[in-house]
Write a structure and sequence with these properties.
This protein is about 45% helix and about 5% strand. By secondary structure, the chain is mainly alpha-helical. A five-stranded parallel beta sheet has the order 3-2-1-4-5, sandwiched between helices.
Length: about 500
């Protein structure tokens, strides 16, 4: 039966071109009569001092999306309000809708609001549709997970590949005979290798207005100046095509490489777009798969990229909803130190952290291996409070949202969830950073010295962590080789390691 007044609430990270709520609403009301409500929430954006590039991306994309809806014949009530409740109440009072439709949020707090608080605010007919921004909403490899059982990403990924028919032969075996080409994708960047420049988009009038508002408000870290991210579906599709054409071919071999020369190397930079709906995961997966069939990229690069999207992205989203709300406070290593100041100002003699922190402060981005094997590795070894680390990621990265940060940082990067997300802590000494980057060559610290004035802090912090947690780590079969190295360290050197680690951590300026 038709309704005279139907409203659709679209969240700011749900900017889907084919939004399911719009199609559902048209069953009850023609688009010319329905109203779409979108809200910029002051409370939400001030929860943390978010990077101004992130705020610019979000608000500009929202405003462009609202304009695209108007061009398609929808009425849009675009509001700036103290919070979602205030904005919605204002909309209800003005337009008196009989029915409200919305899609479940990807974050715990937004979904909790929709399911628990929204029914008390709206007296009409309320419909909360399932979230379609993730493929796990369409297929769940583990529909009834057992309490206490660990589920690993590789098995999850293979089930997703089988179900959606991705990179499979006609007999459902993986193309090339292997599910995973990770061993081919661990090369350091060759000296002198030419690196492609990432695609940049010139801000239009809407974006420039957002940039001015954000700079004038003075909220957040970094600067909106120099903003050049895509803000529409069309631009995001151009960014996807640019990645496929210019970077996918070399993405696989060098996806773990790090260099002072570039923050992006051959990475896609598409996570910021898919996380707010400007792209969809299957759109990216099929495009990469087609690039392989067209001979534009090798199987190891294509599979490596697809594994990030169909594997890790979907898996961490699944883990997020399995572990929330407890994941936010998980702290299995009992880490309690505040976040070091160097991650906020890039003032440090550690060359790797200085470069990465500076990039994040300036642009809101560094690629995944720098996040995992430098930032999270350091914070785990240094005993930094997992919640403080997660808040730093949420603050600085343009693609950071609760559902992706908590399982990736607290779960995988810091192993603070008791091994539910990843089966081992991802810890490494300076040897790994030296092997996979050119950071160490121009650093004042020596990557091969374990102790002493010139020893890299990653070295004595790594061995100190092994000493402090030796019993726990020995119980993990995947950490066996690491712990076995302790047998070559006598008691005198152990004391030196522990003393230097303690002195370094004591002298480390902390962010308050």
């Amino acid at each position: 039966m038709g309704k005279e007044t139907v409203s659709v609430w679209i969240l700011g990270d749900q900017l889907l071109l084919d939004h399911p709520v719009l199609f559902e609403a048209e069953k009850y009301c023609p688009r010319q009569k329905m109203r779409v409500v979108m809200i910029e929430s002051d409370t939400r954006i001030r929860h943390l001092p978010y990077h101004r590039q992130k705020l610019t991306l979000l608000f500009s994309a929202m405003r462009h999306f609202a304009e695209s809806l108007r061009e398609r014949g929808f009425q849009v009530d675009y509001l700036r309000a103290r919070n979602y409740a205030t904005g919605l109440l204002q909309h209800f009072e003005t337009h008196q809708p009989e029915q409200l439709l919305t899609m479940a949020g990807s974050e715990y707090t937004s979904r909790k609001f929709q399911l628990e608080k929204l029914p008390a605010l709206f007296t009409g007919e309320l419909t909360v549709l399932a979230n379609t921004q993730f493929l796990t909403g369409q297929f769940d490899p583990y529909p009834k997970p057992e309490t206490g059982k660990r589920y690993v990403m590789e098995n999850f990924y293979r089930e997703m590949r089988r179900h959606f028919g991705v990179l499979l032969e006609k007999d459902s075996t993986p193309i090339g005979g292997k599910w995973n080409y990770d061993e081919m994708n661990r090369k350091p960047l060759p000296k002198g290798m030419k690196l492609p420049e990432p695609l940049a988009f010139e801000p239009d009038q809407i974006t420039r207005q957002v940039m001015r508002e954000i700079e004038e408000a003075g909220q957040g870290v970094g600067s909106a100046e120099g903003f050049n991210w895509a803000v529409t579906q069309g631009q995001a599709e151009i960014a996807l095509s640019d990645f496929l054409e210019h970077r996918l071919k070399n993405f696989g071999p060098y996806e773990d490489a790090m260099t002072t020369r570039s923050a992006t190397l051959f990475h896609s930079l598409l996570s910021a777009y898919v996380n707010i709906g400007l792209l969809t995961p299957m759109q990216m997966i099929r495009a990469a798969e087609q690039a392989f069939h067209d001979g534009k990229a090798p199987i190891n690069s294509v599979e490596g990229f697809i594994r990030q999207v169909l594997g890790w992205r979907e898996y961490v989203y699944w883990q997020y909803w399995q572990q929330m709300p407890g994941l936010r406070s998980a702290n299995s290593w009992n880490a309690a130190r505040p976040m070091p100041q160097m991650f906020w100002d890039a003032e440090t003699e550690m060359n790797c952290i200085r470069h990465i922190a500076r990039r994040v402060i300036d642009d809101g981005f560094s690629h995944h291996i720098e996040r995992l094997m430098v930032v999270c590795n350091f914070c785990l070894l240094a005993g930094i409070d997992p919640r403080a680390v997660a808040d730093w990621f949420l603050t600085f990265y343009v693609d950071a949202y609760d559902w992706v940060v908590l399982p990736n940082v607290i779960g995988m990067g810091l192993n603070a969830d008791g091994g539910k997300t990843a089966t081992k802590p991802y810890i490494a000494s300076a040897n790994y950073i030296n092997k996979m980057s050119d950071y160490c060559g121009s650093c004042r610290y020596h990557p091969k010295q374990r102790t002493g004035e010139d020893a890299c802090p990653f070295n004595y912090l790594y061995w100190n962590f092994l000493i402090e947690h030796e019993k726990t780590l020995r119980a993990n079969p995947r950490l066996g080789p690491n712990v076995l190295g302790l047998k070559h360290i006598n008691e005198d050197e152990r004391r030196k390691i522990k003393a230097q680690a303690a002195e370094f951590l004591k002298s480390l300026p902390l962010y308050e």
